[in-house]
Amino acid sequence: MSFEAAVHAQAIELDQLALDMTAAAGSGHPSTAMSLGHIVTVLMFHTMRWSPDQPDYPTSDRLVLSEGHAVPIVYAACAKLGVRIGRDPSARRPMTIDDAMSLREADSEIDGHPNPMEGFPFFDAATGSLGQGLSVAAGLAEAARLDGYDKHIYCIIGDGESREGQIAEALDYIVDHKLTKVLPIFNCNGYGQTDRVSDQQAPEHMVPKLEAAGFTVRLVDGHAPEEIKAALEAFRTMPESAEKPMAIVARTVKGWGSTAMQGAGWHGKPATGEALEKAKRELDERRIELTSALVTTDRFTIQTPPQAPVKEFRIGELPPFTQTMKRLDMESVLHAGRMATRKAYGVALKALGHVNDRVVVLDADVSNSTFADAFRKDSALAQRFFECRIAEQNMYSVGVGLSAGGKIPFCSTFAKFVTRAYDQIEMGMNSGANLKVVGSHAGVTLAADGPSQMSLPDVAWFRALSTTKDHRGNPGCYILQPADAYAAYALTGVMAEYEGLCYMRTLRPETEFLYSDDVVFNLGGFEVLNEGRDILIVAAGYMVHEANKALEGLDRAGVTATLVDAYSIPFDAEALLDLANANNGYVLTIEDNYGAALGSAVADALAESGDAFTLKQMYVRNIPKSAREPDEILQMLGLTHKHIVENALSLLGVGV
Fold first, then answer.
1. Quick one: CA torsion of 538, 540, 542, 547, rounded to 10 degrees?
2. Which of 392, 426, 527, 546 is catalytic?
3. Which residue of 113, 222, 331, 599 pairs with 589 in a disulfide if CB–CB is 3.0 to 4.6 A?
4. Does 277 qualify as catalytic in the annotation?
């Protein structure tokens, strides 16, 4: 049997299995899967260098399915090839047809969209929230380049999906960084969910747009095996030093092989009953027409991944803050006793880079403000710094890819701009990515630049992630708000040691030192800065300093307060409850962002205890505007130390 006939036969077999899988599940996207039968067959049975026995082997070629709803076609191929699956890496088993038929079942590894954390290690990241896969592919390629692995990254993208702005961000990034080992494959089947895609996403427009972006483009018939093979071979044999990266635009048919499954109205709709039987009969007719025979997987030879020594990494401890500052000739800052937490983050990054080879840094054109440029400017570390420019969504998904490649990505930008990538960060959490998100210029103390530059709902959003458990049984995200440079430096090191998602807010204004190298900071911890008996004050970040100033005013009023620096969410709720009880159940929380954040986390802890407490929350209750200095904006919003004193006394029923 010729290669072309063998691919047709195998693709039809996969298409039929995709139909059966989605029918059994009662949901899914068989028509999209059928548009990819031939491309997936040539990729997985012929072109890719990988091993079904070790689908996540470090040097294996990778396939990122950005249009994750098409995953039944990949599952079908994995079932035919016996790809090993299982949530426990030590007890993986070859995937079977029965496994494929468990698509979308609650206890199945065959999830509705790709997700390695559910026991399917063939994939590197959770996809299906459209537009993100190409960025993940770029991150995988960056990690491979750092490690010296000769691997190719294939990414399948839907034509409707290609309108997402993040696709344009990723294409620019691939050209900027000369990632010639990444191959975007655009599946142009002409239909989205509701109707036809825009003409702007038609092959006739996709090809010149990609060429204008800096790609060499091959237009192929996505159901012509020899054309697909030739295009993929051209990519695979292209030298890494090629002038331009390559892209494939594949003209395909949604529901190929069955007239009953084509056109609008079948997206996300499985065929059942007579419709299913008709679709399978039509595919059988196409098989006879194109091949006159059945085919088995032994007609294909999967190429083994290239051999390379396993990369060894140096992973050491972050040295003490004072030691690093002296080594960097920054002792004068120590003597001054003040430093912005964003600057301490930059110092910590540089120190981490020299003791931990897995640490990489990404920034979005603001590294001279986030102080991530301390890493970039170090010649020994510069190759592990990735400038993503003003494209935050791409940056976080590239970080997810780097994490899948074994790196510890620190992704920095202004905290305000983190908010435009919430979806990408959540998908990273779903992927089990070891992602470190750092937002500088956090809260209202940014002052002069006004609310368009202030991060105000960020703590509430990340706190929502902190209330769930990730696949490892840990909080979905830790939120860290260091109040001084010592805390920021130490918590950067803590993030690097932890496997999972963290979000750290850093500040623009300089703040006084509160701590020393003797203080140990832990995820889930807090620090007691003052012990009292009348009221518990819980603050974070900049507001710790305002609360500290308020202690003197309270003391003059005859009130002693316990002050807690709640630098971590989640925190040790039981320990906090003990402090609240020791202060007669009166609690005041202070934060420099919108509500549903720190104060709500404290409120939940108090409510869940079942005991009686009295809580008042201070946070940003009005949309702020510009002010010249942090003190002015805090005065405008009722968040100064004087306001803290007033609120505390009011809560206690003491006259002001």
1. 10
2. 392
3. 599
4. no
